[in-house]
Amino acid sequence: MKKFKVIISGGGTGGHIFPALAIAKAIEKKVDKVEFLFVGAEDRMEMEKIPAAGYKIVGLWISGLQRNLSKRNLLFPFKLISSLLKARKIIKQFKPDLAIGTGGYASGPLLFAAANKGVPSLIQEQNSYPGITNKILAKYVQKICVAYDNMERFFGDEKLIITGNPIRDDILSFDTKVKAGKKLFNIDVSKPTVLVVGGSLGAYTINNAIASNLSDFKTANVNLIWQTGISFQDQAKKLTRQFSVNGIQAHTFIKEMDLAYAIADVIVSRAGAIAISELCCVGKPIILIPSPNVSENHQYKNAQSLVNKNAALLVKDSDASRKLVYKVLELLKDTIKQKELSNNIKKLAVKNAADRIAEIALSLIK
Fold first, then answer.
1. Residues of the chain with CATH 3.40.50.2000
2. Coil, helix or strand for 126?
3. pLDDT over 70 at 330, yes or no
4. pLDDT at site 70
5. pTM, to two decimals
6. Burial level of 105, CB count in 10 A (0-12/13-18/19+)?
7. pLDDT at residue 165 above 60?
8. In terms of CATH architecture, what is 4-166+352-363?
9. In this structure, are residues 74 and 25 in contact, taking their beta carbons and an 8 Å threshold?
10. Residue 195's closest CA among 117, 114, 100, 287?
11. How many CB atoms lie within 10 A of CB 363?
């Protein structure tokens, strides 16, 4: 029996990489002999994260168009042509039975090349407002899996299926890991714990707000687990050194996010689509700070949809330095509000999205 071959492309941020991995794992459960090849952008985080998860990846020389006038835009046409040629070569050599794109720069050339070669193709759009890559690809693929209502205004009706966003398996079982979390982060469990996550690449405003108010966490006798991202790591580690005995700790990147979720009482996060989908499954009280640096302000729209259902609190990015830490400590004191937020966000959880997307993708094969 020949191996079933699947090519998956998506990256740039964790929001595109984690769904790609979740879909691959779901397909593995359904198909006996399957071989995966991931395709990413050469200098982006997928080139490290995908091999760490045990899969093979090849890189394309591709990046996005800068929104401002930038010299880097002069290279874009050359990068695009180079990536399209390499993508065609990859399709020709690997001979996939199926192609899946989860967004990010590399998925454009790859899915375009696959669809043009007649490979059954599907894209998964995480956000309430799609990126330019997926808007272009929509014409060429057979199915489009989405997580939000009213996406037909971007994609039309006939290819669209609402599946929710894929969640990593380890996140889904987070609640069995409280003991392991306490051990890993070595925290005093008699104190409440705040988890601050600024996205896989970090978030300057959130980091600044936390850095300026570290002593408030000490005064309130609260544990802080703070993911800073690379750009802020040195500053944060220096600052937290004097507070480490008080349960205040900084991490460049938290690989075991399931264990961090397990021990958190309140979570502070950006409002990326995958982060929100995961947080709905985790069901803890959350405060969202939408990033203002995204197309069509989609993180604000993602966050507002939860706030409207009394399932999250929102602090604007521009208000974070003044309001964020105050809001966190206020919520920690208000156990009734915590319970309310927790109950409401749990109702929004979709836990079987990866399975559904895997089934839809496999159904495309004649």
1. 4-166+352-363, 170-346
2. coil
3. yes
4. 60
5. 0.85
6. buried
7. yes
8. 3-Layer(aba) Sandwich (3.40)
9. no
10. 287
11. 11
Are 284 and 262 a contacting pair, CB within 8 Å? no
For the record, the structure tokens of 91 come out as 């399709």
Q: Which of 115, 134, 114 is nearest to 125 (CA)?
A: 134
Burial (CB count <10 Å: 0-12, 13-18, 19+), residue 248: buried
Write the single-letter amino acid at 148.
Y
pLDDT in the model for residue 312: 98
Kindly state the tokens that stand for 170: 């380890």
According to DSSP, residue 103 is labeled: S
More confident residue, 229 or 37: 37
Instruction: Say if residue 304's pLDDT is above 80.
Output: yes
Rounded CA-CA distance 199/63 in Å is 20
Positive or negative, the Cα torsion across 279, 351, 100, 132?
negative
Q: What fold, for 170-346?
A: Rossmann fold (3.40.50)
> Residue written as tokens 């205040």?
248
- Give the model's pLDDT for residue 67: 57
The Cα–Cα gap between 310 and 324 comes to 18
Mean pLDDT, the chain, whole residue set: 91
- Higher per-residue confidence, 290 vs 199: 290
- Apex 343 CA angle, 342 and 348, nearest 5: 95
**Distance, CA of 169 to CA of 352 (rounded, Å):** 10
Q: Rounded to whole angstroms, what are the CA distances from 325 to 104, 244, 347?
A: 32, 18, 27
What would the two tokens of residue 277 be?
């989908």
Which whole number is the average pLDDT over 28-53? 92
Q: Is there a contact between 122 and 101 (Cβ–Cβ < 8 Å)?
A: yes
CA distance 210 to 216: 9
* H or E segment to which residue 300 belongs: helix 298-307
Residue reference for tokens 């993602």 = 302
Instruction: Inform me whether the pLDDT recorded for 256 exceeds 80.
Output: yes
> Beta strands of the chain (E only): which ranges?
4-9, 34-41, 57-60, 98-101, 121-125, 143-146, 160-162, 193-197, 223-227, 248-251, 266-269, 286-288, 313-314
Listed in sequence order, the residues at least 6 apart from 63 whose beta carbon sits closer than 8 Å to its beta carbon are 41, 43, 72, 75, 76, 79, 105
Give the mean pLDDT of 10-26.
89
| Residue reference for tokens 């895997």 | 358
